[in-house]
Amino acid sequence: MLALQEITTRAKPVYEKALAEAYPHHAVRGTVGLWSRLPLSDTEPVDIAQDVGPLGDAKPAEAKLADARALRTTVATDRGPLAVYVAHLGSVRVHPRTGFGTQSRDRNARALGEALAAEPNERVVLLGDLNGTVDDRALDGITSRMDSAQEEAGDGFGFSWPARFPVARIDQVLVRGVEPVGSWVLPATGSDHLPVAAGIDW
Predict the structure, then answer these.
(1) Is residue 13 part of a domain?
(2) Which of these ranges, 44-48, 55-59, 82-86, 130-134, has the smallest mean pLDDT?
(3) Is 52's pLDDT higher than 80?
(4) Are 43 and 72 in contact (CB under 8 A)?
(5) Residue 51 class from Cβ within 10 Å (0-12 exposed, 13-18 middle, 19+ buried)?
(6) Structural domain that includes position 110
């Protein structure tokens, strides 16, 4: 499986063409997508509350779908169904007067944690830029329900950000009901994040 984030309308057909042979099945919702060698089904955006403004106003349904930053799909494996989530939580911003701004990220994390809590499949993988490390208390609703592939079976520190001089791992592969058998960082791609990878087994 290959998860991509910040997919633009212009880039989507480029990815589809380039990855079609190696990953014949894919699903994109908003700006996140999953490419797979195995069939996908029941794909839907996950409401991580990124559309809720400070006054509680919400975007129209069409805009919510176009701007979706999380999805959930089912991968058909020879060992049974695997639920896979791809998520891109809000960024942590630094404001000169008020310090770190984490409201969007924290709200997204709470909503994603609720979705994971309600997930009926016992085998789950979460692939995402969570804009926080697994030690960040704001992600407790997620990390309390999932194991980090890096912490369980990682090679080195696994730092992924910033790509030029990585000092933190904010890009995560988290699992539940499956066993991580390896986790590592891939070479730079031109993004300000390094891509991360993991192996899992049942």
Answers:
(1) no
(2) 55-59
(3) no
(4) yes
(5) middle
(6) 40-201
Across the chain, which distance is largest between two alpha carbons, in Å?
54
Q: Which residue shows structure tokens 């960040």?
A: 136
The sheet with strand 25-29 has its strands ordered as 2-5, 32-36, 25-29
For position 84, what pLDDT does the model report?
Answer: 98
Let me know: does 124 contact 175? Beta carbons within 8 Å. yes
Phi, psi dihedral angles at 64 (to 5 degrees): -60, -40
Residue 112 within any structural domain of the chain? yes
How many separate domains does the chain show? 1
Residue 112: how many other CB atoms lie within 10 Å:
26
Q: Is the pLDDT of residue 54 over 90?
A: no
pLDDT over 50 at 202, yes or no: yes
Report the 10 Å Cβ neighbour count for 147: 18
Per residue in 62-120, pLDDT (tens digit) is: 445 557 999 999 999 999 999 999 999 998 766 566 555 778 999 999 999 999 999 99
Q: Which residue has tokens 């087994």? A: 201
Contacting residues for 195 by C-beta, under 8 A, at least 6 apart: 160, 171, 185, 186, 187, 189
CATH number, domain at 139?
Answer: 3.60.10.10
Q: Is residue 32 part of a domain?
A: no
Is position 21 within any domain? no
